[in-house]
């Protein structure tokens, strides 16, 4: 008989962005116990949590091994939401969450940059954009440090009808600015743990590497008289 281990939960969706009425396929894998019970929960953007089975069109269970089970659920999306899967063992349980977005954009969070290899001493601008229906704010990070305005760059927020954008503009970019830049977008809906009432902030991240090139020497045409 397999020994009882710590229970783990992993949840995923067939994709992250959906048009209204499209089918969402959510897969939750539970492992660590030979006696697993399972529960779906569904939280909308207003923070209301309901039983996930109320929105399902179909579901199936696949026994992978003595201590691992996979649950698959299908439903038609009507609003952005967080899907919560809970795996309950004999003495332990675990939860995992995945966000799905109802949006007209291609990606819920994107980085827009004119080029990946700007030349040093040039002005250079990037935009971290997120769907404003699903996200409340965006921010820029480099090497895990929040980027703010200083004497070399400007950082500010722009809003449009469907996007919240954080603009990062270098007055003059240098070789020291080479590196991995991360665009972070904060979801509007927090997830509250049932066990400890801790607010879990869900953040979506997109990264882009910028390689600042050395400016070539200027050509000086000398006239020979």
From TrEMBL:
**PROSITE patterns from the UniProt entry:** IG_LIKE
Ig-like domain ranges (all copies): 2-103, 108-199
SUPFAM superfamilies according to UniProt: Immunoglobulin
Q: Which Gene3D superfamilies match?
A: Immunoglobulins
Q: What is this protein called?
A: Ig-like domain-containing protein
Species the sequence originates in: Phlebotomus papatasi
Q: What is the lineage of its organism?
A: Eukaryota, Metazoa, Ecdysozoa, Arthropoda, Hexapoda
